[in-house]
Structures are given as C-alpha cells and as structure tokens.
Amino acid sequence: MSDETTNGAAAPAQQDAAGPAFSVEKIYVKDVSFEAPGAPAIFSEPGQPDLQLNLNQRVQRLNEALFEVVLTVTLTCKVGEKTAYVAEVEQAGVFGLVGLAPQAIDVLLGTQCPNILFPYVRQIIGELIQAGGFPPFLLQPINFDALYAETLRQRQQQGAAGDLASAEPAGNA
Fold it and tell me: Which one, out of 51, 99, 152, 170, has a CA that is 20 to 30 A from the CA of 161?
C-alpha cells in the first residue's frame, strides 16, 4: 500500500492532511530493576507473601504530534517484615496524535496508551520475578478507563476539569 511507512516517525506528519490519527511510533523499556535483598534466606522464610503494587503514568509532549507515555509498575513482596523482592519496570512508548481535540488527546493518553504498554510490563515483571527464583507471578489486568475516570473526578474536585486543554494530559494513574 502506498500509505504504509517503514519508519513510523514520518507517519503523523503525513496523516495530518488526512484527518485525525493515532499511531504507535515506538515501544521500549526505559528502566528495569529487580532486587532480592534477603536472598537466599528469604526462600525458606515461613509465612504468606504480602504484595504491594504501585502504578504510575507519566506523559511528556515531545513535539506537536508526538507524546512519550511511561507506565511504571513497582511490585514489592514481603514475607513478614522482610522484603522478598522488589521489581520495577518503566515501559515507555512514543505515540503520534494528530488532528485531535485536546480532550480527545487527553483521553487517548490516559487510556489507550497505557493499555498498549501494559502487556509489555506484565511480561517483564513476570520474567523478572521468576528469574529471581520466586514462583511465577501474573500481573492481573488493570482497568485504565476506570483509573482515567478517577483522574478526571479528582481534576473536577480540584477545579481543573474546566480547562482540560491546559491541563497536563493523563497525569498519574
């Protein structure tokens, strides 16, 4: 097809004339960390593991049509008072958004972009934990639409919802 490009970097500018467009330009790992501070003693520690999940999302505008979205997942596992492991992944993507209203851009950055990045985070977290000698872990699906709705509710409470165009798109989830 003549509309296809082999290097997505040119796609947003070309699609501008054709109307609104959303594109995935690049997906990459920005940072990965795994620590097992109590190993190997933690492997024989009695008790049930206590897992704490921390999810964060950052958005940075790179230019008029490109945005970097970084989805950070930190999973901390403790057995009793001892930390078994801490796994953290920053999965990022560059997304092209052209010809869209600021509110539509905000919605896409807050819902679709993290939905696209999540399977990558899920896989890396699972592999890190298993490579660390711990039982397999499957990160459960996350409803980014509900998280975005909560973000909007918080904006409204803070009086920021009246001007979404000037608000920083899709802040922390």
Answer: 99
Q: Structure pTM? A: 0.79
Amino acid at 162: G
Q: Cα angle vertex 130, ends 30, 111, to 5°? A: 45
- CATH number for position 57: 3.10.420.10
- How far is Cα 114 from Cα 71, in angstroms, rounded to an integer? 6
What's the domain range around 115? Answer: 22-157
Residue 101 lies in a domain: yes
Burial 78-93 (b: 16+ CB within 10 A, else e): bbeeeebbbbbbbbbb
CB 109 within 8 A of CB 93: no
pLDDT at position 123 is 97
CA distance 133 to 108: 37
